[in-house]
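Side project, low priority. Logging it here so it doesn't get lost.
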Amino acid sequence: MIILILHILVSLSLLAAVLSVYLPASVLPIPAWFALMFEWLIAAELVLGLLQLFTKYRRWTWMTVAMIVLSIAPICYTVSHGSLFFPKSKLPHSFTLMTYNSHMMDASRKPKQNRVIQYILRTQPDVVCLQEVEVYKSGNKLSLNELREALNVYPYTYFDFKVYNSQLQFGNVVFSRYPLIGKHTLRYQSETNITSVCDIVLPTDTIRLYTNHLESNKLLQKDLDLGTTTEQAKSAFNSTSEKLAHASAIRIEQAKILRSDAERSPYPVLIVGDMNTTPVSYTYRILQRGLRDAFLESSDGQLGHTFIKKRFGVRIDYILHSKDLSASGLDIPHVDYSDHYPVLATIHY
């Protein structure tokens, strides 16, 4: 009986997670809660369905079959399956790309001590897209000129910041071995978030690049700590639900603006960066529509977590691209220079 009750609860939770793909958290925040736990819920559903076979309630195993069928689309967006559905690229040209939320650029350390800068110099992808870059105009912190000079192996750059005061600058940066033209910014009603747009002029083609830092849920550890009493759990649940709903509403509008701009592009597009949303979400559905996800395309059987907090991992950093491009060799190195991992891939055109 205990297994049956647990099975029903997990199935209902999984159903809520699946609904989050079609129902924005701004309308109903509870499914977004369960969407964050989607991978665990799938695992629990399979385990409980198997255990159910050895109880007198074995007929309830149909619930597991039904939930897995309903979850096929979210599973396909969560677990990579490149060799099954994506043929190996035959496009003749390629370049390497990195997107990386630098988390205040490794505390704005000077170049020789800055682990993000040194990592870029070691790997040297052809195009580097950075989010949450924080530089200072004076003092003992990293300056814009020092950042530019440290990465002078890249002759072309695009810096776009939101200035908080006379000293601090915070925003996105693109470094490139190829010329960058058509630079402009999508500015949102947000304190920290922008999309930096530029065209990469390659030897035989031009690609429009969108480097994104979309609205964060701004969840704190206290929001995830349910405490030891009913009142504490209720308070944490309400706080988290409110934050998820608020951030989702903002992020969905940002995603719509971004997609509208991308659909007007005369060139193939690359949409990369920290989207602050998992693949099981309404926002991802907007962003990914009509595009390919490089992670799903170029790896097999992986979850691709790019953000880890107290051993809880999610994929919120992406490389999405037009269907007339392709991706291979995607890698998510587990380097601890930020609260995110970098995402690297080879883009074929």
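Brief comment: The first strand starts at residue 94 and ends at 101.
Revisit when time allows.
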